[in-house]
């Protein structure tokens, strides 16, 4: 049902126009094949959240059998791939999987997908080219605790130490550390990251 209702991009020109025409909202394109069961599942979730994210995101689907133009350019070899664009710019998203270009698995949980879209949108509005997604989302999706989560906790603990010395501006600029984290940790004694 979802694939039928979501707007289809039927040529490469339509894909380019969808990416270039949106100035204030995040453009989400699901690349895949409409007949694929994984695409059908993902399209159903996208259809169900489309109304909830319409103020900050627009969702399109693109069948790779009809529009093969982007297969090689975006390395679209997976059954289902979500890509994010903002103001004619491809948004890089670090999910901790090693591939920062796209989300290439089926995400069945509507709220998790909304959280990811909102996080990418907020990062895009701040001018960030790479948005780091919370590791717990990826851990829940894959059902495992990986090295990425451990490394993130190490970095956060190190950044709090730098924040106490007043040298955290460049970390916030990279999107790794937020002002709220710094101020809350500094007022609470700054023990963040030492118990892990």
From TrEMBL:
It is found in: Nucleus. One of its GO terms (biological process) is mRNA splicing, via spliceosome. Transmembrane segments: none annotated. InterPro entries: Dim1, Thioredoxin-like_sf. GO terms for cellular component: spliceosomal complex; U4/U6 x U5 tri-snRNP complex; U5 snRNP. The keyword Cell cycle does not apply. It comes from the Eukaryota. The keyword Nucleus applies. Keywords: mRNA processing, mRNA splicing, Nucleus. CDD domains: DIM1 (cd02954). Belongs to the DIM1 family. This is Thioredoxin-like protein 4A. It comes from Lachnellula occidentalis. The gene is Txnl4a.
